[in-house]
Amino acid sequence: MIEFKDVSKEYIVGNQRIKALDKVSFEIEKNQFTVILGPSGSGKSTLLNLLGGMDRPTMGKIEIDSMGIEKFSDYELSDYRKNSIGFVFQFYNLIPNLTALENIKIAAQLTNKVELSEDMLKKVGLMKRKNNFPNQLSGGEMQRIAIARALAKNPPLILCDEPTGALDSHTGQKIIELLSNAKNSGTAVVLVTHNASIALMADKIIRLHDGKVVKVELNDSPLSIDRISW
Q1: Which of 3.90.1150.10, 3.30.40.10, 3.50.50.60, 3.40.50.300 is the CATH number of 28-98+156-224?
Q2: 35: Cβ–Cβ under 8 A, 6 or more apart, which residues?
Q3: pLDDT at residue 174, as a whole number
Q4: Which pLDDT value is given to residue 168?
Q5: pLDDT tier, 195 (very low <50, low <70, confident <90, very high otherwise)
Q6: pLDDT of residue 200
């Protein structure tokens, strides 16, 4: 489904050239929960931005279903983000003047899947909160709404940037369970984190350090959330 081929990303900061990613190569398949693991500054967020079509590589190829998205025009990248990607961010990014249900519907409208909005809200267990605004929800509830928003688009790829970083351990476990279960509907789920415990649930672990892939591991026996020490 997704293939990175010798992908590099450089930024110019003042007089310095910063290499955020250095000839990175890996593959991600559908029906998989993939964890990208690495310390702060290892290139995780840069990699996620490239996967999501929010940035372009300096060098290398990014193929999605054999399409080289690094060659896409701005319009094609926008269309790719709209139709193919569901984003789950660390700090939720809900629209404050929309209710929980409306936040989901506004994303579902992009792919004409509005009818899935209430189903997704039920799936994350928050139908009773559908008319509440974000400032009336807990952090865990807001993150569950963010996940429902991503799922409601029914995208082939969900990208998650440290989605449990602002949550307590109990709520974080619930969030990871929801995300890992999304692969059962054929979606590829890619989660960026520095929490090594989460990797025990993954089908594939991509380890980054200093902008390089240092190891790609396949996990034939992912653990369930209740077997993980957070």
Answers
A1: 3.40.50.300
A2: 190, 191, 192, 193, 198, 199, 201, 202, 204, 205, 206
A3: 84
A4: 83
A5: confident
A6: 92
**Residue type at 76 in one-letter notation:** E
Tens digit of pLDDT for each residue in 89-99?
888 899 999 99
Contact 117, 101 (CB under 8 A): yes
Residue where the block lists tokens 């409208």: 109
**Is the pLDDT reported for residue 123 higher than 90?**
no
Instruction: State the Cα–Cα distance between residues 176 and 163, nearest whole angstrom.
Output: 8
Distance CA 153, CA 119 (A): 12
Task: State the sign of the Cα–Cα–Cα–Cα dihedral 130, 136, 140, 145.
Answer: positive
Classify strands 188-193 and 157-161 as parallel, antiparallel or unpaired: parallel
The pairing of beta strand 2-13 with beta strand 85-88: unpaired
